[in-house]
Design goal:
The chain is of the alpha+beta class and 286 residues long. Among the domains are: 149 residues, no CATH class; 43 residues. Helices cover 39% and strands 14% of the residues. The strands form three sheets. A four-stranded antiparallel sheet has the order 1-2-7-3, sandwiched between helices. A hairpin with a 3-residue loop joins strand 5 and strand 6. Helix 1 runs antiparallel to helix 5 and helix 10 packs antiparallel against helix 11. It is globular, with a radius of gyration of 20 Å. It binds iron/sulfur cluster (2 copies).
Length: 286
């Protein structure tokens, strides 16, 4: 093992000890083929050479099993991937003497973050995009939450996955019989939902349709976005009684609370992931 490989191994071990379920490394220059200038690792950190990506499970197996879907919504996850990457970023600077930053994956304008964790996860060999809202599925865990650290430390990169994780063979069979995969069936764009797509003769994704705006309005009503939405509703309401009832509604209370405790609500819809067979095995406990 050469020095770079040893460093990569040690960094991956540290990331797992810090709470990540999976960790992979990508080359900073690989972004060039996928995103425009301004969104590449070296646009965010000069001389960036590597991107270390961690993924962690969000809701526990028990939360997925709860018959009350709101349990998933309000678990208030202090995301393990964020904790791990914050610790790992400092660790790389102190242990290896190289610059490191947490990649900025939160949106700064609309739904557009300066850095895509989804692309990072794919380039680091941790998963591939799926029919379900383009979510990057990991072959072992399915849905994971990703974070990344950009560093000037040169590390050997992991290969990308050779096989697409989605569609699962079971979904291909379902599609052959019904014309829909399980995720498309629960959120069909032809029936008021957000998803559609086709599978080719070899069982691979042929085309994908995802209505992000519709999904966001249903699944992402938390934090500042929800507060802005409900505040606009309150100030434009002319009926005083109705205005008061909005202010005292559960949604307004949650949106106000979410401004302070941003992570107390994770998302409001997990239905496309609930029916997905990828990662289900990992959620089977006693
Ligand atoms: S999160 Fe919900 S609304 Fe969004 S694509 Fe999945 S099932 Fe549809
Ligand atoms: S249910 Fe999961 S594996 Fe199957 S098509 Fe949808 S995202 Fe892919």
């Amino acid at each position: 093992m050469d020095k770079g490989e040893q460093q990569a191994e040690a960094i991956k071990r540290a990331a797992l000890e810090m709470g990540a379920d999976v960790v992979g490394i990508a080359r900073a220059r690989d972004w060039e083929a996928f995103v425009p200038e301004g969104y590449r690792p070296y646009d965010l950190l000069p001389e960036a050479s590597s991107v270390v990506v961690v993924g962690a499970r969000g809701p526990t197996a028990g939360a997925w099993r709860s018959p009350n879907p709101r349990v998933m919504e309000v678990l208030g996850l202090d995301f393990a991937n964020d904790r791990a990457i914050a610790a790992l970023t400092g660790h790389i600077e102190s242990e290896y003497g190289h610059y490191a930053i947490q990649a900025p994956g939160l949106s700064v304008a609309g739904h557009q973050p300066p850095f895509s964790y989804m692309l990072a996860a794919v380039l680091a060999g941790l998963g591939t995009r799926s029919f379900a809202a383009n979510i990057v599925l990991n072959p072992r865990y399915g849905l994971l939450y990703y974070s990344a650290c950009i560093t000037t430390l040169e590390l050997p990169a992991d290969p990308r996955l050779e096989q697409d994780v989605c569609p699962h063979p079971m979904c291909v069979q379902t599609y052959r019989h019904t014309g829909k995969t399980p995720c498309i069936a629960v959120c069909d764009s032809n029936d008021g939902g957000c998803l559609d797509g086709t599978i080719d003769e070899d069982g691979h994704i042929e085309s994908v349709y995802y209505d992000r705006e519709r999904c966001t309005s249903r699944a992402m009503n938390f934090g500042p976005v929800a507060f802005q939405k409900v505040l606009a509703q309150v100030v434009s309401e002319e009926d005083a009684a109705r205005q008061e009832s909005i202010i005292h509604s559960d949604f307004f209370a949650r949106a106000s609370s979410g401004v302070s405790f941003y992570k107390e609500s994770v998302a409001q819809c997990f239905e496309c992931m609930r029916v997905c067979p990828i990662g289900r095995q990992e959620r089977k406990l006693k």
